[in-house]
Amino acid sequence: MTESTALLTDRYELTMLDAALKAGLHDRECVFEVFARSLPGGRRYGVFAGTGRLLDAIERFRFGDEELTWLRDNEVVSGDALDYLADYRFTGDIRGYREGELYFPGSPLLVVEGSFAESVLLETLILSVLNYDSAVATAAARMVSAARGRPLSEMGSRRTGERSAVAAARAAWIAGFAATSNLEAGREWRIPTMGTAAHAFTLLFDDERQAFQAQIDSLGTGTTLLVDTFAVPTAVRTAVEVAGTGLGAVRIDSGDLHIVVAEVRAQLDSLGATSTRITVTNDLDEFAIAALAASPVNSYGVGTSLVTGSGHPAAGMVYKLVAHRDRGGDWLSVAKKSTAKASVGGSKHAFRRRDTSGVARAEVVRLDTDGVPTATPDERALQVPLIEAGVVRPEWRGPEGTAAAREHHTAVMAELPRDGMRLSQGDPIIPTTYA
Amino acid sequence: MTESTALLTDRYELTMLDAALKAGLHDRECVFEVFARSLPGGRRYGVFAGTGRLLDAIERFRFGDEELTWLRDNEVVSGDALDYLADYRFTGDIRGYREGELYFPGSPLLVVEGSFAESVLLETLILSVLNYDSAVATAAARMVSAARGRPLSEMGSRRTGERSAVAAARAAWIAGFAATSNLEAGREWRIPTMGTAAHAFTLLFDDERQAFQAQIDSLGTGTTLLVDTFAVPTAVRTAVEVAGTGLGAVRIDSGDLHIVVAEVRAQLDSLGATSTRITVTNDLDEFAIAALAASPVNSYGVGTSLVTGSGHPAAGMVYKLVAHRDRGGDWLSVAKKSTAKASVGGSKHAFRRRDTSGVARAEVVRLDTDGVPTATPDERALQVPLIEAGVVRPEWRGPEGTAAAREHHTAVMAELPRDGMRLSQGDPIIPTTYA
Predict the structure, then answer these.
(1) Which of A102, A135, B253, B280 could form a disulfide with A309 if both were Cys (CB 3.0 to 4.6 A apart)?
(2) Where is the Nicotinate phosphoribosyltransferase N-terminal domain (chains A, B) (predicted)?
(3) For chain A, what is the mean pLDDT?
(4) Do A70 and A9 touch, CB atoms closer than 8 A?
């Protein structure tokens, strides 16, 4: 996709630019920060995701003739602002948490350094991408730990906007899902795709046996047959008759899974199909997955709850001005004082402090004003350069960047205190401290 | 946007097509139906939205070289299926509820008639669009009725995926919102756009007075000044000093709005700014809006809760095969029997029965098999042709179709029994009956 992302933006970003231009302050050097004030729903940690998509989107944040004409015709901004926008591209620096990294309240997830004009324009786009992708990744990580090693497939495309579906598949994969049903996610981000069959396929045929036979003729005996269109025991018997004991898997999409899964396992075993797997897909979330730990389930397919962040579809990240140069050229930390929404001024760096066993113990935030912040021996630096002088670092982009994010996520989950995996509500599992 | 939507799809849609092709049943004439089994969260009605976007997306559901190459390289389907897909376009008929219409459990929202192959492929895309847009429109309609005539602005772009943000702005507008912050929604769907300023704008300046002055210099005294970056009373006084008593509005984004709004109103009045409006934007949902009915608020800005469907971010619509021709050429109703997920077979038409006062009393669903279903004098037909022999009806598309949907929504809300506006959980406000 090469189309412009410039209008995927709130109107006030442009009118603020316009007013700053008129006031002569548009070029004032600024530092903006993305952070979350809290973790929604008593989560113990958040998973940062969206960077790979965001870097592409920032590069495509350019105002072409079409965009400028519309802005002019609709009198959104002045002629001076239109001239500025015509030449706009972000030429500043952005550093941030690696994609797949864990985060906590106050973690300085993205630090955007550039002129006010260049930086303020990106607010809406940055938050749209990060808030959605991180909400899904956070829900996904909890499902992955609840599944205790059993593979999970993302299959929620039909339960979120058609483009968000691609982002959700990507975020879930970064957080440890094994595959997605979404083909565009396979094409664009090289995520493994999977699929079974729908009830409609069975209903198309004159009977279930013909449907199973047709699916096996086309996809082989390793396929997954859907066994709950009519009576499950009949379908399981038919499935093994048609496919033989080498049948890959059966899928169950309804009923009380605790009971049905045990019955199906017993039936498959009695028919000799001992290696045929059972996959379940019935409105699962992390709690339902955890509750099935003792059931002979082999894999899970998760839809609605995953792509809607399991009750928290937006991560609650905000984009705040935290510093700018004053008239004398010195950096000045700034912060609003709004009730219950205060922010901490200053350009920030972040580190994760670990004990001698490598277990995370604190999120340490240091301000630029404390000198050049570096990691102590027991700390790991959390921010990396993402954009330097307007140039996107290639290693965070595309399928390779996405695969790296997935690997990084696995590594940092291993640092999490064991209690952090608990699904119950609580405080963030490690404190955020300002050094 | 002319890009293909063909891969915004679950893999199994394509493998089912492939298997049906091999079995020689791909051309079997079928009827698929979109419906919701229930209204989420004890809602009293749902608002159907997304049609205008969907019709575009279906037209762009074509497999070009890029898509076919990827499918071939990744061995998603056989060569026969690739040949079929290369020529694919939907040539059947789709009728459905008008966009903006109300719906209830079992309402046959979309009826897709075509070959199995042509129709099954559209499942994921249809549900992605309708589930998200209808979730937002339903939440929006409840907010509009809670606001009792005060205007609402949609400003949630940063709290949902960047493309879903455009869809959300459109859905909210159809359901009665007055404007959106999202510029792309303005360009693509001709929805009025609005904006104020962010805290960052105030913080950019050396003091609040300079920031207000700069905004007024750029946008005029009719603008909306954000007054909670520091102390609200100081900001209100400064705002009126700078803008005069003709100041358009002030925005409050934090604090206990019941108290703050009353204080700000009193202060504005005491300063002579009696016509300056107050807009509030602090994590509002339909309940918070309703609770402010007695406060001197002039307008609301709604973000997170709107674009995430106020607790129910997916409408729960499904796409089911309900009939196909049998080998003899006769229509056969089909339905799965899965526990708690059973569906009703047959091609359906729908009507809203109204009493002599014009108040809706029942959702009446009639099957094709009952003869050609037509409306009785006390009924209004709910379905309209959307696509005929593959050709999209132009009146439902683009900005004009969207404006028509908004008008239609206003008209049908007037039919709703008064109790239907209650925000509390309950049963659907009218029953769905199968004639």
Answers:
(1) A135
(2) 7-131
(3) 96
(4) no
